[in-house]
User: What shape does this take?
Amino acid sequence: MTTAVYFDLDGTLCTYDRSFEEQFATTVSPYGEPTDAAYDAYVDRLFGALESCESEPYRRAFEAVAETAELDVAPVTLASDHCETELEALVVSANATRVLERVAETNPIGILTNGDGSQQRAKLERHGLGELVEEVLVSNDVGAGKPDPEIFDLAKERLPADEHVYVGDSYDEDIVGARSAGFRTIYVVENETGANDTDAADAVVSAVGELLDPTGLPSQIATPFEPAER
Assistant: This one.
């Protein structure tokens, strides 16, 4: 019996050592004042573009910033600068890498993430995660994002298996979305008491590194991480 395991990226395998607002300020400060209005315009336009799977979401977001703030720089330059700032702020723990390595020894694994295709893949490349997985699905590349069942169904097609498991940190997008598409689910939260609702999760862990010890997981989830038939 083969079990394919997909992981979310942001918040699950990686975090940031600076807040998004601090990253925005780092990008904009060399060219002008990073005002609250400019940041709000950036966030609204970026997440709108990501939700609708538009091309070049970062450029579109900084075009909205340019309409709000007087900055002596082109939006495309700000977008490029900001993508690099985001990559520099990215943190991937040694445990997260070890989890991918260990699970890949016995199971087909992939990354399923919402976001801009080029930026999400750059994150994987920066920390050597892409070479550890067999498939990478990014919402803006495939035209559908979590919790839409379309992206989960495509994930099943990309990694055919008897069953599929999804590991993620967003309850509505990751856990409810994956469960609705027929995945078994592992919910990653800061701490178990921080999860208000866990009904759609087969297991709850405080960090992805806990998957290094499958004996600590409920029995119905520990089995996918045993050697799978090839």
Notes: Residues 49 and 57 are 5 Å apart (CA to CA). The longest helix spans residues 36-51.
